[in-house]
Specification:
122 residues
Length: 122
């Protein structure tokens, strides 16, 4: 499975962005998909995930502001980001794993897309 992320950009505080991650390959419907983010000098951190059963998980700092819908027909997972804050500025990565080995640990994900930069200005 190969993943292609897009949708990053510059947005003002309080604004919204939608990231997309398109998967290529034979299977997608049975994959758990996640989004992680990383800022310079820090470790990559979990943001959100959706299982093949459409159970969703979020890190506390984005709960209520971000959602992670998926469209299996398009083999695409999204990260809808609302009420953005300057501290959301980061490079965002999408990731995938077959089934559900784990949710919040990046080591549980076998496939990674390239990052897309999100910059939130104050």
């Amino acid at each position: 499975v190969q993943l292609q992320a897009s949708g990053g950009g510059l947005v003002q505080s309080g604004g919204s962005l939608r990231l997309s991650c398109v998967a290529s390959g034979r299977t997608f419907i049975d994959h758990t998909m996640g989004w992680f983010r990383q800022t310079p000098g820090k470790e990559r951190e979990f943001v959100a995930a959706i299982t093949w059963r459409r159970n969703t998980y979020y890190t506390d700092s984005v709960e209520g502001r971000f959602t992670i819908p998926r469209d299996n027909a398009k083999k695409t997972v999204y990260l809808q980001m609302n009420s953005l804050k300057p501290e959301d500025t980061a490079v965002y990565y999408c990731a995938g794993q077959r089934g559900v080995r784990g949710i919040r640990n990046e080591n549980d994900y076998a496939y990674w897309g390239q990052g897309t930069l999100v910059t939130v200005s104050s």
